Amino acid sequence: MKGFFRKNLGMKAFSLLLAFVLWSSIVSRAPEVRWFTIPIEIMTGDDQVVVSSEQRRAEISLRGDTTVLNRISQEQLRAVVPVDQNRPGRHTIVIVPAEIQGVPRGVTEIEVHGSGFEITLDRKETKLLPVDVQFSGEVSPGYKVENVTIQPTLVEVTGPASSFGEVQAIPTEHIEIGDVTDSFTRPVKLVPPGKLLRAAPSSVRVDFEIAEIRVTQEIGLAVLPSQDGWTTEPSEVQVTLEAPPSMDSRIREELSARVLVESLPPGGGETVVTIDFGAFDTDEMPRIRIVEISPPKVRALAPRPAR
Length: 307
Description:
By secondary structure, this protein is mainly β.
């Protein structure tokens, strides 16, 4: 018996080493399990929108060769869950292994852990709604906000049908008007009510027209023919105008009522009354608005020939 163990020692040692190498190779290639936390992407139909979801990440485990598992980055994995066949309402979603994307070859088993999660779906709706400009503040004394215009006036709003509710317009961010005397333009973002409504475009242009406050007044002006010796009936007209109060005294000094008589028949005739602004320059004249001249026409009388 002792002779048996002593015979061919070299060959026996080599066989033992070979068996150990084979065993190590088999052990090293035994499947391994790795756990990953991956994002969930919910694929809706064109007419659907997710109102709420209780879960945005999933726990999975992958079984496979260690070399393969070592090359997997968590960023390459995700669960893509189609819900386009589901109707509006609340649903329990269970992720299946076939919905895990980014898994390389060499992974022998995919397991999704957890019992599922709840989502609420709604019908997607799109409406054209007007923009409501939100602003406050006081302009400089003697001035006012004459007009506010918006470009565009209507925006396309998309979201769950249930989120529109009583929404009739889309407000802008609040605009504070400072101590200004000139018109100005400002881009401003829209603020759709609720987190699920989206407006396109997401901002608009708002133009503020700032104007001087004009007071309506009525003054009497003598009618002045364009040639000496002519007279008019009546000899005075009443002029209703709008102008800043600061210009009141100059208006009474500078404005005059005029009639042209050169094209009238020799004896005279009816002609239109116009207002001459006197020494007011071209920048000041737009600040005065003539509302009415009464009467708008007078009868111009030529001078009587000397006897």
